[in-house]
Write a structure and sequence with these properties.
about 180 residues, mainly alpha, Rna Polymerase Sigma Factor, Chain: A, Arc Repressor Mutant, subunit A, 2 domains, 8 helices, about 65% helix, elongated
Length: about 180
């Protein structure tokens, strides 16, 4: 079996993985797992859940590999599967654990100080706000799409984004030396 290297294009890797070549699947996983895990972690705020979602995505990819159109990029498809899995868990659990800063640093992401600041901002959002805002602003999901996926309306999605961002703006304007409370008017 030939070695897989970075020069192999994804179409060839998918073709080889369809034929059952484990090395091709391993290379696909190597190329995409970190990005999928990073997205799942941002959406769920929980390292173990992000690991589970990452594994689910690649298991689904194995199931649907034969049905993927040739030349279809895998990463957008995998990210969609991960986002849907995160939404399903959010809807099922109605709660998510806070992000672990040490494990949330994305590959090729911002400088550590900027990353820590962005994680701090994400922690200020509720799990639903974090997921909807991230999917809308960073992954390009539309409000109608988000509403449908959450079983809600387009206006619900717009409202979640607006309220979450407004609250963040207000919190960012608060002096850092005063204790922070969500109960203050």
């Amino acid at each position: 079996m030939p070695d897989i290297d970075d020069r192999d294009d994804e179409t060839q890797l998918v073709r080889r993985a369809r034929r059952g070549q484990e090395a091709a699947f391993a290379e696909i996983y190597r190329r995409h797992a970190r990005a999928i895990h990073s997205l799942a972690l941002r959406l769920t705020g929980n390292h173990a859940t992000a690991e589970d979602i990452t594994q689910e995505c690649f298991l689904k990819m194995l199931q649907f590999l034969g049905g993927l159109r040739p030349g279809t990029p895998l990463r957008p498809w995998l990210k969609r599967v991960a986002a849907n899995a995160a939404i399903d868990r959010l809807r099922r659990d109605k709660r998510l654990v806070a992000l672990d800063d040490d494990e949330a640093q994305p590959a090729n992401g911002p400088e550590p100080a900027l990353h820590a600041e962005s994680i701090g901002l994400l922690r200020r959002l509720t799990p639903v706000e974090r997921t909807v805002i991230w999917l809308h602003a960073m992954e390009g999901w539309s409000h109608p799409e988000l509403g449908r996926r959450f079983g809600r309306s387009e206006s619900w999605s717009k409202s979640i984004v607006s309220r979450g961002l407004s609250r963040l703006r207000l919190e960012l304007d608060e002096p850092l030396d005063e204790p922070h409370s969500h109960d203050d008017p």
